[in-house]
Amino acid sequence: MSDYKYLKGKKTVGVIGCPFSGGQPRRGVDLGPLRIIEYGLLEQLIDLGWEVEFDGHRNLEKLRPTYDPDIGKLKQPRFVSKVCREVSKTVESHVRKGQLALTLGGDHSLAMGTVSGTFAVHPDAALIWVDAHADINTPETTTSGNIHGCPVSFLLGIAGKVEGFAWLKGCLRPEQLVYIGLRDVDPPEKKILKQYGIKAFSMHEVDKYGIGKVMEMALDHVCPDRNTPIHLSFDVDGLDPSVAPSTGTPVRGGLTFREGHYICEAICETGCLVAVDIMEVNPTLQDEASIEETVTIGCSLVRSCLGEPATQKEVLARVGALNIQVNNLCQFLPQDKVSEFAQMNPPELLVETQRAVGDAQLGQWHESLKKLRNEEKDLALSAKGDSEQVENLEKRNQLLERDVTRFRERESIMRRVRLLELRIPFARYAAAKDEYDRAKREREAAHLNYKRIEEEHGPATRAKTSIERNAQSALQSRRDNQDALRVKTTEIDRIVQRLEQLEGDGDDARRAVSEAKHKEKQRQNRIAGLRNEIQQLEAVVAGPPPECNTEEIQRQLDAVNNRLRQISEDMAAIQAQQEDESDEQKTVMRQYRSCSEQRQALANVKERRLESLRESDSDMYNAVHWLRRNQNRFAKPVYEPIYLEINVKEKKFIDAVEAVAGQAILKTFVCQTAEDYKLFTGEVIDSQRLRVNAICCVDKVLENFKPPVPLREMKQRYGMECYLLQQVEGPNPVLTVLCSEANFHAVPYAAKEIDHESFVQSVRSFRAFTYICGDMQYRVGFSQYGKKLPQSNTFRMRPGRFLTDSRNMQRMHELDAQLNSLRERREKIEAAMQRLKREEDTFRAEDEELREKKHQLTEEKRQLMKERTDYERAKVKLQARQQSLDDELGRPNYLTQAESQFRTIIQDFGRRRCRLVKDYQVALREILRLFREKTGAAFKHMQAQAELVALARRVAERDDALREARTKFNDAERKFNAAKDRARQLLDEAKAGTDNLDEQTRQEFQDVGRDMTLEELEDALVSERAKAELYFSISPHIVQQYNQRKAEIDALKEKLSGKESRLAELSTEMTTIRDKWESKLNEIVKNISAKFSAAFDKIGCAGEVRVSTHEDYDKWGIDILVKFRDHEKLQVLTGQRQSGGERSVSTIMYLMSLQELAKAPFRVVDEINQGMDPRNERMVHSQMVQAACRPNTSQYFLITPKLLPDLEYNERMKILCIYNGEWLPNKFDWQKYIKNKQRSGNDAKGKKRKAEV
């Protein structure tokens, strides 16, 4: 069973019964959940190991509105909406609690509630919808208006706005949905599926790919990582009506029983299942058997979803209903099995008797008892071992208890030491707190004294403050004047800088004049250079232009280019041909490899046959490998076992070949010389002791073995197809052995029935003859005496075992022909490829020559063009230079222009300098004014300072007292802060030691040293440490070992308790099963024994059947006790103690005792009377007739080569005499024979009466 990834805690299934039919018009579907629960679904889920939380069958009828008119085409929309909303909340509650939600419907409109409830918890879940219908109609496309055909459109959010359904938002995306089993889909639904790209697997895909592949593809689509929650909504009409007939909308051609269950099993195996719907079970539409079948299927699907494979149980249930042994329809008791029956030990006889006459429960009870007893023995042995181990561990722990006790005492002391160490910081904090309180009081007193002195010193301080304010005002005025003076000074500095800048601008103007002179000189130089260059260019262009006739060269280039293009096209054509040939070559090679692989697979039959010998016949396997290693030691090849060397051309002849040849011949090695035979048998059989067969075919030639009748005559006269030899392929020596040892050349074969009598008469010239007809083998012999009448034996051939994988020679020949054809095609392609390669090489060589010639012509043309180009370039350059000269001559004189600009700049400079000088004079006067104001403010400040000094001398004495008070206050403040910091630090340290204490330690800490002083705590700590030192140090490893062992002891005791509980459960369970099984078994054996004893009484013997018990149930048995002589005691029937006739009598008596109890409808008794004396045979036959001819009993078939005369006869029996033999006449007068027998009987009676007289 898979682990469910999305369930929490114990596996719990929340079962929601929804008896609802409002989504469709048929009544009865609301009864489906009730019938499923009544059928025992909840108990079945509990048996699977699930916790079940059943909400009961919900009263959904109370939600029906009083008025619910249609909305468009939709019927009962408000009722359906309310019910689905209620179901949605319930499903969501179960899923959110980590339970698997199982909803039993009800019509399929409920899926709007179940799916939305699941997706409220798992919005990324997947929905697998198993249904014959898509149920995706919208309110516009539905033709019936039944909402059970529309739920998926509402879930996808494509149904539009419908009154009452506002609560149902589109919770499902198309990629989260997959359909399985569709086969009745409306055209609008098909359009919707295609429009939204919804994955759907119809029954066509199920038939095409198989349900396994369909489930793999479906899960890959919605759950590719196998880690997505899955909601399975299963409409039982997805199944074929032959499987689930009682449903409202059945459609033929649906899922089979196994396909439906495989879907559930595959989803269960993912471990992702979170919710299941089982819908549309309607127990009112069919007969009771069909209803029960559908309800059973519904329960079975649920069990498969929850981890139970649904196969064998269903089959066994159906078989059990037949009340017969389907696996033992016919009990066959041939004479050669009597010894085996007698040699059967009592436990085996008990098992077979239960199987023959008991119901299925009897055998199941016995098997359960054997399993439970084995489990009890194993568990008792395991419990004994655990008990001994507990005792051993307890003894070992007792040795450590003293040390552990001392360790714990020391741990207790060390724990108190630790608590004292934790308490001391708090004591130190208490002392620091006292110091803090004292410093606080001193600080407050100093502060009060300081305030008093400060108030007494107030008037002088205020006068001083006034004078200081006046001094400060004078000082501020001085500073403001100083700042204004600084601003004006900065302004004068800027004026001076601007004057200096004007001087610099004059220098720049003078430099510009100098640069103008330099530029003018450069212009004159350029004019001279241009005139010189123009003279040179005029000399170049003075003569006529050079000739440039390239027409001839161009014609040659055109010819070369045309030829290159032609070569390129030809090479492209060749390359295209090469690609075609290459593609064809690849295709041929693929076909060749495929054919070769197929032929190799066919030819590899020999190795597969040999490998099968590894387990079945290791001697032959080893002999074959020895022969392969030593083949060079033989004069001629020695052939491996015949069935490794031969091949049957057609499979229909395999059974005949194996039947005629026989296993011994097929497993025979074939030697061609006497020396090789002697060497092989000496090495393999004598030296290695390998049990194999070998034969030597010296002086035998295959051509000497001719068919007795020409094949043409066999076909025309008797309908024979062939001789077996014609259907076998192999080396000639091997075929020779088949002819010499099994007459393969003389065994004809016919697939259909022939006229056997005519055929047998035609081969009378042979002493013996074998032929095959269909699946029967006929062996015909002729008597050497009298009329030489034919004697025939008929055998049904067994299916072949050795040659079943024979090569299909026709297919091999076809493959050989294909391979030869492919080789020829490959050779042709290779030749064509080589031809094309040669042509390509020729074209490439010509291409290279032409390209070299093209290069030469191009260079020659370029040279001619260069001379003409140089001439034309000189003309153009001459014009450009003349234009440049004209431009230079047209430019103005740089020097004249610069001098004019210089004069303008000098005039402007003079005007600006005058303005700056005026500004300088104004600023200088302002500076003088500010300097005077600054000096007056300085005098005022000096006066205020003098007054302040005079006042300071008067208040100096009072200031000293105030400073002293201030100093005392500051000292008190400092001491207070230090005490405060110290106390806070000690408190933090103390708290840090107790922050991580557990509750128990914290409680102990509260009780330790609460009222002790710091000195007392330190003394107590020293004392406790001294106590701890009195205990020697014990390794914690010993304590750890002790605790681990104690935990192991506790675990073992708990485990032992569980085993003892299980032993008690097993004992109770075995007692319960044994009471039922033993009572029923004793009753059956008592009935068998009574019939068995009565049967033996009738023949003057004694017999008894009883149950032998044992503490192990697999050793319980049935003892058959018999006594055939008066002086003997009852003895157990065995294969050695009694004679063959006695065993036969005991066997038939026991079997007849089972007659009324057995469930096998047929019995075949073959030669059971062999070995009996006439008296016993007559009495046994009489009892058999009485037992077999009762009404309503199993049918007996007694097959025997002889019967005593005057045996008991019953009109319910039928006697069939099969007679043949060489002494029988061609015609037999039965009336005469009967009269003679009657006359003989009357004579015998008359003699008897005379004798009595």
Automatic annotation (TrEMBL):
<feature type="coiled-coil region">
    <location>
        <begin position="485"/>
        <end position="584"/>
    </location>
</feature>
<feature type="coiled-coil region">
    <location>
        <begin position="383"/>
        <end position="456"/>
    </location>
</feature>
<keyword id="KW-0835">Urea cycle</keyword>
<comment type="pathway">
    <text>Nitrogen metabolism; urea cycle; L-ornithine and urea from L-arginine: step 1/1.</text>
</comment>
<dbReference type="GO" id="GO:0010121">
    <property type="term" value="P:L-arginine catabolic process to proline via ornithine"/>
</dbReference>
<feature type="coiled-coil region">
    <location>
        <begin position="1039"/>
        <end position="1069"/>
    </location>
</feature>
<dbReference type="GO" id="GO:0030915">
    <property type="term" value="C:Smc5-Smc6 complex"/>
</dbReference>
<dbReference type="Pfam" id="PF00491">
    <property type="entry name" value="Arginase"/>
</dbReference>
<dbReference type="InterPro" id="IPR006035">
    <property type="entry name" value="Ureohydrolase"/>
</dbReference>
<keyword id="KW-0464">Manganese</keyword>
<keyword id="KW-0479">Metal-binding</keyword>
<dbReference type="GO" id="GO:0000724">
    <property type="term" value="P:double-strand break repair via homologous recombination"/>
</dbReference>
<dbReference type="GO" id="GO:0004053">
    <property type="term" value="F:arginase activity"/>
</dbReference>
<keyword id="KW-0539">Nucleus</keyword>
<protein>
    <recommendedName>
        <fullName>Structural maintenance of chromosomes protein 5</fullName>
        <ecNumber>3.5.3.1</ecNumber>
    </recommendedName>
</protein>
<keyword id="KW-0547">Nucleotide-binding</keyword>
<keyword id="KW-0378">Hydrolase</keyword>
<comment type="similarity">
    <text>Belongs to the arginase family.</text>
</comment>
<feature type="coiled-coil region">
    <location>
        <begin position="812"/>
        <end position="888"/>
    </location>
</feature>
<dbReference type="InterPro" id="IPR023696">
    <property type="entry name" value="Ureohydrolase_dom_sf"/>
</dbReference>
<dbReference type="GO" id="GO:0003697">
    <property type="term" value="F:single-stranded DNA binding"/>
</dbReference>
<comment type="similarity">
    <text>Belongs to the SMC family. SMC5 subfamily.</text>
</comment>
<keyword id="KW-0175">Coiled coil</keyword>
<feature type="region of interest" description="Disordered">
    <location>
        <begin position="456"/>
        <end position="483"/>
    </location>
</feature>
<dbReference type="InterPro" id="IPR014033">
    <property type="entry name" value="Arginase"/>
</dbReference>
<dbReference type="GO" id="GO:0005524">
    <property type="term" value="F:ATP binding"/>
</dbReference>
<dbReference type="GO" id="GO:0046872">
    <property type="term" value="F:metal ion binding"/>
</dbReference>
<dbReference type="GO" id="GO:0000050">
    <property type="term" value="P:urea cycle"/>
</dbReference>
<dbReference type="InterPro" id="IPR020855">
    <property type="entry name" value="Ureohydrolase_Mn_BS"/>
</dbReference>
<feature type="coiled-coil region">
    <location>
        <begin position="962"/>
        <end position="1003"/>
    </location>
</feature>
<keyword id="KW-0056">Arginine metabolism</keyword>
<keyword id="KW-0067">ATP-binding</keyword>
<keyword id="KW-0158">Chromosome</keyword>
<dbReference type="GO" id="GO:0005634">
    <property type="term" value="C:nucleus"/>
</dbReference>
<dbReference type="InterPro" id="IPR027417">
    <property type="entry name" value="P-loop_NTPase"/>
</dbReference>
